[in-house]
Every structure is written in C-alpha cells, then in structure tokens.
User: Fold this.
Amino acid sequence: MNLRPRGFLECEGAPGAPFSLLGLPFDGTCSFRPGARFGPAAIREASWVLETYSPALDAELDGSLVADLGDLDLPPLDPWGLIEQAAERLLAGGHRILALGGEHSITPPLVRAHARRHPGLVLVHFDAHADLREEYLGDPRSHACAVRRCLDSVPAERLVQIGIRSGTREEFRWMRTHGTLGPATRQGVRDALSRTTGPIYLTVDLDVFDPSVVPGTGTPEPGGLGYREFENCLREIADTGRTVVGADVVELSPGWDPTGASAVVAAKVAREILVLMGATR
Assistant:
C-alpha cells in the first residue's frame, strides 16, 4: 500500500499545474515567540476541515489546478537566495505561487522575483506591524524589516498597507507621508487601490487578525481584524478585477494555540487567496 501525506485541501494538481503551493518553513529571525516554521504543515492539516467552495467569493476551488509542491528545504541561516531561486523557476514556467510561511522575512525574495516578472507590481500588505525598519537587532533581513526590503523592488507609491496598528514613530511618520496606510474596510481598500495600477502581490501576516481570532502567531497585537472584516477586504480586491499574480500567508505559529483554531483560520485565508487568484471551476 502506497501512502503519502495529504497536501492542502484537495490540491492534487501535477507539478505543471498553473498554480503552485509552496511551503517555506523558516523562523530564523523571530523576535518574540518562535514556531512559524511549523506553519505550513499545520495549515495543510487544518485545511481538510474546510469545503472547497468559498461563499464570500462565490467560487469553487479547483484542486486539479493547484500543485502542492511540499516544503522547500531551507538552511537555518540564509534561506533567502534559495527562496528567490525557487520562485524564479516557478514564475519562468508560467505558474502563480501561493507560499505558506514561515515568518515574514520569506516575503522580500518572493516579491523580488515577482517584480522582475511583472513590471508595475503592486504590493498589498495585511499586517499588525509596519515592518518598515531598516534593521532590527543589527539584521536588515529580520521579519521586522520585511516590507522595507520589499521596497527595494516595489516603490512606495505601489505599496498598500491594511490593518497596521503597531510600529515605531518613524515608521508611522513614513507611512503617513507616503500615504500607504488604508483602513480595513471595503471603501478603504477601494480607495487605496484606486491610486495604483498593475498586478497585485498579496502578503498576509496572520497577526493582522485580533489575537481573539488568531492567538497562534509569534507577535500578537490587540485591536486587530475580525475574520469578516478581512473577508470583506478580499471581496473588494476581487471586485476591482485586478489580477493577483502571487501571494503568501505567513506567521502562523501553531504551537501557541492548542485549540488549532488559528491554523483553521490560516487555511481558510489560503483557500480564499487561491480562489481570488483564479484557481477555480
């Protein structure tokens, strides 16, 4: 009898399928509670409690269009080059990528690869934290610097930030000066996206949710989104008709939530993003 671990929610497409799901189990720059490296496995396991149909987006996930490629083997000290190379190979083959983190430092190499492939790329960033530090504890590649490193590839006028409620005075001054902040409402998302054109890369740090919704994250921050608020934001992105060419879901630390509810939320977010990206029937 040949048995293999189940992948993400009926995503059994061949490696040549148009959508690729890739786990990036890394948390080497974690600044508070570790464990995000266990996120991809927990998301896959939790996904099997979900249906393939998304009522919010009124579309059915077609798992035959999504190849779950498993987890990329990452070294503990410098994984970012391998992440970028893997993304480059997939994008060169015409695939769209949903990456499962892992901590938020996995996002900049993904964004670099997408920005080269998609001129005019717009970065839509859901998070509790600004992530705009030049360095944190002497490390410019810390997860606290994730969006700052993305700005090496995407200019500030193509950055949209939703749900931010924590950061330094300097980070908030920068966001207000550059107009990147938007409220977590349909109108807020509509207004923020209206000042941009081009395809979207979507990065979702799960601490954008209130800790009552997702306690299983490394840096929980009170005052966050409820799930319905997030869902409405995704509806608005869908209604704009803009193409989402790549995405990631990061910072699930499942060990901090023994109920498993955080992993279920993360899996549902991943399903909605695959549907938003067009992996539907």
